[in-house]
């Protein structure tokens, strides 16, 4: 035993400034506080203000006196800068943002160290797209852990990306998965991370963005460990490949189910909202008046941008299907338009933002038309709601492929946007998907439930993470 007193664990959590990233890492902060680990949650000034404005973060974390604090730093852009849809920084300028944030991060950690009223930071859990924080941690001799908020399947695809060859045939086999030969599962070129393809209507897509994602993926290996919000039994072939390149991998998903279990156990009725948009909870009242499994929920996340033509085709396909629907129509969803009157109708209910986890868990919801973001996918699988996947960029094409072809819990509708296909797909999924889809969604939802309780793989990995954080 060292003469020096062992330092209490104090984790600084630093997400990439995007809604999906903040959502997962804030949930992780809650879980660590439940485990008596002090947490400082570091956000950009812009997103910190939005969290305070639109969420109950203050009251939620008031349950952990002395264990949770906020901090914020500049993202390098002036406060009046018109952030793109979803409030991400300009992704093509991320490296500039990182160079600006790096000295601020270093100074913040030093200031905490010099503050007699606070414990020094013992570990940085940084977003895997913010790996400059690993360099800061190394300089200050602090443990660092990278957290990637994408699926293991997509993370592995990024690791393999330098080996891909350019080819215009999008249906050509591009990537096999070791250990999955019996399932005959593979990725086509059209299933690769969306940054590898050009989408004229989406200004976030560029070669520099792809290069950044690949670079940061490999840089993540410089941390002492990697956290993924996934389930061992769901993505074991991908995790096995990732573990050949990383010292330690914690598979601790789904985080939202973990947090829900803890709140239930402690009889905590606090609503979990980690978003940067104001929720319209009137949609829950509307859902209460609908028959069971009669509503199609439609949401394309916080950054997807549609053309007016795409919106029209999706809309008419839904209307022609004959089913009721709840559509999230956030500002900025349609390229070049702030508003559109196309989404109307007596069978539909439209909100700017919805409490998605509660919506997917509602008895009235029978299917989810989604952009296949990882948070949305996890929440849908946990609720046993089948998906109609219409991916747009980043990890979404990868996820839609495994949802449709590997896990059989939805239909991959990528690269198709015509009303007849939308109508046919909605009817198929709402009609039960031939029976197999219903069985698969129930089995995976059960797998999720088992993973986050004592004895489950995610529960065990989380306990290992807590133990390692406390060991210093």
TrEMBL record:
Belongs to the UDP-glycosyltransferase family. GO terms for molecular function: quercetin 3-O-glucosyltransferase activity; quercetin 7-O-glucosyltransferase activity. Keywords: Glycosyltransferase, Transferase. It holds the Pfam family UDPGT. Its EC number is 2.4.1.-. It comes from the Eukaryota. CDD domains: GT1_Gtf-like (cd03784). This is Glycosyltransferase.
